[in-house]
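Researcher: Next entry in the queue.
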Amino acid sequence: MKNTDCTTPRNAGRHLVLPIALLQAARLGVLLAAIGVITAAVPHPAAAQQGGGPAQYDGAASEPDRSDKGKKRRGRGGPAVVQVDTVKVVPVTQTLPVLGRLVARQTSVIAARTAGPIETLHVQVGDRVKKGDALATLVSDTISARRELRAGEIAEFRASIESAQAQLAKAKNEMRRMRDLQKSAAFSKARYEDQLRVVEIAAGELNKSLAGLRQAEANLKLAEIDVNNATVRAPYAGVVTQRHTFDGAYVSMGGPVVTLLNDAELEVEADVPANRLAGLRPGAEIAAEIDGRPIRAIVRAVVPDENPLARTRAVRLASSEPLTDIGAAANQSVLLRVPVGSARDALTVHKDAVLQREGGAAVFVVSGGKATMRRVRLGEAVASRFEVIEGVAAGDRTVTRGNERLRDGQQVRLKGAGADKGGEGVGRRKREVGE
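Model: Structure for this entry, 435 residues:
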C-alpha cells in the first residue's frame, strides 16, 4: 500500500514556500494602503483654494516672503548724503614752512616780599587765579609785633617833642626877660649869652625829636608793608604752573613761591632764517596752523638779534583771535608759512575733499546726482585749501563730508537739499514694504 502522506521531503519544501509568499503579499498590501491614506490626506493646492481649506506650506508660498525682504532692504538704501565745496581760483604765494611755538607775554616766578614761614599755600598747580587773589600766607606774628613796636616808638617821639617844645618855650621866655634888663644895672651879659645857648640847645632837642618821629613813622609804614606782604597775591590773572614751596617751609625775602602764567596773552614766536625776512614786516599777515586749525597771524616785531650759529632771527606774531578759545597752550607748536615769493592765482580744493587712495590723492566730484572719483595732483597748501595742478576744473563741486565711504559712481544727495522729496521717497518705500 502506497504512502499518501504529503510530508515527504519534496512536498515539505513546497508547503514552506507558499506561506512565505503570502506573508510578503500581505506586507506589500499594507504599505500601499498607507501610501493611499497619506495621498488622500494632502489635497492639491487648487483644490484647497476651491474648497476653502487651510493654506498649506509649499515652495511657491515662500517666494512672496523673500520678495518682501528684498523690498525692505531696498527701502533702507538710497543716495548718500554729502556736503560739497566748489573748486575755485585763489591767490597763492610761495611759502616756506617754519615751525614756531606759542609763548606767554606774561609768565614769572612770584616771590615772597617778606621773610617768614609759610602758614598756608592756597593754590595748586593748574588753579586759575585773578589779579589780587591770595596765593600764600606767611606766619605774621613777628611782623605784627614789629609793627606794634614801631607804633610805640612814634608815641615816644611825640612825647619827647612835646617836652622839647616846652623846654624851648621856657628858655625863650627867660631870654626875653633878660633882654628887657639890658638897660638895667641888674643885667649880666654873661648870663644872657648863657641863656642864648640854652635856647639853642632846646631848639636842637626839639629838632632831634621831630627827626626821630619822622623816622619812626617811616619804620611803621615799613612794618605795615611787611604785614600786607605776609599775604602773597597774584600780580595778574593767570594759571599756576608750578609750586616752589609748601606749608611750613621758610621763605626768605625774594624767595620763589609759585610760577604764574597768563594764558590770555599768548603769541607766536618763530626763528626765521635771516634771508627769508623780506616779507615779514610789522603788520604783515601770514598763514599759520595750530594742530591743523588755520589762524591769522600778524607780525608784531622782528627782534634785531641774529643767532650767529643758525643765522635766524626771532619773529613775534600776534593772533587776530583769542587762542584760549581753541585750547592753545604755551610752548605748543605752530606751523607758519612764511611768504618767499610774489602772489599768483591757483586752482584750489578744500583740504577735507582730498582722500589718500592707492596711487595717490583723489577727490569725489558731484555731477548729476552722482559722485565720480578723480585722481588729482596737488601743489602747495593755502590755508585750509590745497593747490590742484591737474584733475579738476574751476566750478567743480567736490565732496568734503561723507566722502570716506563713497564708491565711484555712487548716487549722492546734498545735505539740506531735497528734504521734502526725500521724505516722500521714504514714505513711499515704507508703503511698498507694508504692501
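Model: Residues 83-104+265-414 form a domain with the Elongation Factor Tu (Ef-tu); domain 3 fold (CATH 2.40.30.170).
Researcher: Noted, moving on.
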